[in-house]
Specification:
Length: 278
């Protein structure tokens, strides 16, 4: 008899790349719940296959699960209208969006470009199933050469889940600007942390446990600042603040749009932004 397959050491990921394990932990923990808001079998498989001190990320919550659902909804909407589009997942980390969307029947004709640094790509290729529709590009999202690989003839949808907040503001806005210039007619979805949250991370004050302090997140936007990008960045013809996805319990309550009537609460919440390129 053969024993269980050896687990992969997650310590090969360091710095910001290690946040891929943080988000994996939270998504897999939610997916394992009988009442979880996210069904994500491949997240559970990855979590179980990677040996790591996940406990240092503190007690898991629903935040990364509802973010994943928001990104799925925006991607699915675009693919429904553009089934042969190219989806570009920048800094994809250990996300398993492709397989969740596959279960929803919108991936049959697309090409999915997974862009991330070599250690992440190596883990993905070792632990996730091969699929001819998925193209791996082992490089930084800031290395614009990834753009040369993208077939834009049937539309382009760019996801930057958990990426922009870790960038210098000039780099984050520059990436948006260059994507808008290169892929007119495409769309891009990204998530924002609010300014107060960003300031805590930059000061090193956001501790998930006594063993882990989150990396600095210098790029922050309020929902209204993100929507204003439509008049600020050439090529961005429209910007939308996406509805918050209801979770369980308090996460369901906080997703209510009623809270946005109070300006300080709207300015203080995280947000997801969809850009349309002209």
């Amino acid at each position: 008899m053969t024993g269980p397959a050896p687990r992969i050491d997650g310590n090969v990921l360091e710095g910001v790349s290690a946040t891929a394990l943080w988000t994996l932990y939270f998504r897999a923990s939610e997916a394992k719940r009988s009442d979880g808001v996210l069904r994500d079998p491949w997240a559970v498989t990855l979590f179980d296959a990677i040996d790591y001190d996940y406990g240092k990320f503190g007690r898991p919550n629903q935040s990364h699960a509802v973010r994943a659902l928001a990104f799925d909804a925006a991607t699915r909407e675009y693919l429904t209208a553009h089934p042969k589009a190219s989806v570009v997942a920048l800094a994809e980390g250990l996300q398993t969006s492709f397989w969740r969307l596959q279960r929803q029947g919108v991936t049959d004709e697309l090409t999915w470009y997974s862009v991330d640094l070599p250690p992440i790509v190596a883990l993905r290729e070792k632990l996730l199933p091969h699929d001819d529709r998925v193209v791996s590009l082992a490089q930084s999202a800031l290395d614009r050469s990834w753009m040369d690989h993208i077939d834009a003839s049937n539309g382009v949808f760019i996801t930057t889940e958990g990426l922009l907040m870790y960038l210098d503001p000039d780099d984050a806005l520059g990436l948006i600007r260059d994507c808008a210039a290169r892929f007119p007619g495409g769309r891009m979805v990204f998530d924002n942390v609010p300014p107060w949250f960003s300031r805590r991370t930059v000061r090193g004050k956001l501790k998930l446990s006594d063993r882990y302090v989150t990396p600095p997140m210098p790029f922050a936007m309020t929902p209204d600042e993100a929507v204003a990008l439509a008049g600020r960045i050439p090529g961005v013809r429209a910007a939308h603040d996406l509805p918050m996805i209801p979770g369980r319990g308090l996460y369901k309550v906080l997703a209510s749009p009623v809270w946005d009537r109070l300006g300080f609460l709207r300015r203080g919440r995280p947000s997801h932004t969809l850009l349309e390129f002209g």
